[in-house]
Design goal:
The structure is a homodimer. The first copy, chain A, is built from nine helices and five strands, in the order H-H-E-H-H-E-H-H-H-E-H-E-H-E. By secondary structure, the first copy, chain A, is an alpha+beta fold. The first copy, chain A, has one domain: NADH Oxidase. Chains A and B meet through helix 1, helix 2, strand 1, helix 5 and helix 7 of A and helix 1, helix 2, strand 1, helix 5 and helix 7 of B.
Chain lengths: 214, 214
């Protein structure tokens, strides 16, 4: 495998920003988008349980409808692609069993997974409903982080968004009846020339303040 | 900026795995580690508020001491570097003001940031203590996701870990009195030859199951 020079990675991370205005005419190619979907599927998660679903909203009318419930931020309608990262609200022992079934399917017979299965089931059943939701929601932010990083490396713009009304998203997208709820959004595409935020220097606290050594 | 081919990114994501056994003799170079620290500092966060601190535990005795409070997982002692991502427990209006001060410092005088400041302060003060903690914790998982992705691209192994006792970590590392609490860990370094998990095929649900279109 070819290692990517660290400076190239840092250049990408410095290049990216939360895109405020997308060019509605510029579309991500099918090949690039397919790779980004693959990167989402490859996201690591707690125990590997993947308590999520990635929803791509392609319907332009529905995307327009969502603007109102996104603090009127037009990115959800204008970006090339709209990704909704949703959490599953039905994670329980049967989901653990589905996952164990998938391990067996991919890795074949390597003896029993009973111990691993019981550890995961114990972890899940020890959490109350709110605890499971928080745990799952945290995992979706790993997916968000990985997605934004991969997009930046491919020189694709993205805008992470927490500012939306989950209940309206769930209703409009029919998520509730599928035991899903919207966790976080990430429109992706290409910045418009008029987005003045693209030119502003990135603001981060200093490395000295953010990193400590013990 | 050079775009990185998507296949190279996917190769890295397929190469990575949650490393169970690190080779204690193999160290990440100072140059590579410095780049990874820089990638942490560059992590995007809600409003850009960076409600975190990244702690690198270098002291080998302390790292040994932490093993017991990490479900006896030796990665925290054996990996080249041990990263603790902590959340700040004192995020309030004064942190918002610090951030606004930092914006002014970096971007210079561009008129008033009062509206943006008040929006952020309103967001924070509307959350109760537990709500702020959850919000901050979610942000740390973006950092975790970005860190793991960057490490993989540099062919550096990592192991995300939620299985530890935060109260003991906070006590041993003196985090509580600094208004910090450990959120998630990520030892990083190089896999040992004997780590049998390195050879196993990655288990993910299928793209068809994980991704839906509306």
């Amino acid at each position: 495998m070819a290692t990517i020079p660290s400076q190239q990675i840092l250049d990408s991370l410095n290049w990216r920003y939360a895109t405020k205005v997308f060019d509605p005419e510029k579309k991500i190619t099918d090949e690039d988008w397919s790779a980004l979907e693959e990167s989402l599927v490859l996201t690591p998660s707690s125990f590997g349980l993947q308590p999520w679903e990635f929803i791509i909203v392609e319907n332009p009318e529905i995307r327009e409808q969502l603007v109102e419930f996104s603090w009127n931020q037009r990115q959800v309608a204008d970006a090339s692609h709209l990704l909704i990262i949703a959490i599953r609200t039905d994670i329980d022992e049967s989901w653990v069993d589905q996952f164990v079934g998938r391990i067996e399917e991919i890795r074949g017979d390597q003896g029993s997974f009973t111990g691993y299965r019981d550890m995961m089931a114990g972890f899940i059943t020890n959490l109350d409903e709110e605890g499971r939701k928080q745990w799952a929601k945290q995992q979706t932010y790993i997916a968000l982080g990985q997605f934004m990083t991969c997009a930046a490396l491919m020189e694709i713009d993205a805008c992470p968004m927490e500012g939306f009304v989950p209940a309206k998203y769930d209703e409009i997208l029919g998520l509730t009846e599928r035991n899903l709820t919207a966790s976080v959004l990430c429109p992706a595409g290409y910045r418009a020339d008029e987005d003045k935020y693209a030119q502003l220097p990135k603001v981060r606290f200093s490395k000295d303040q953010m990193i400590s050594r013990i």
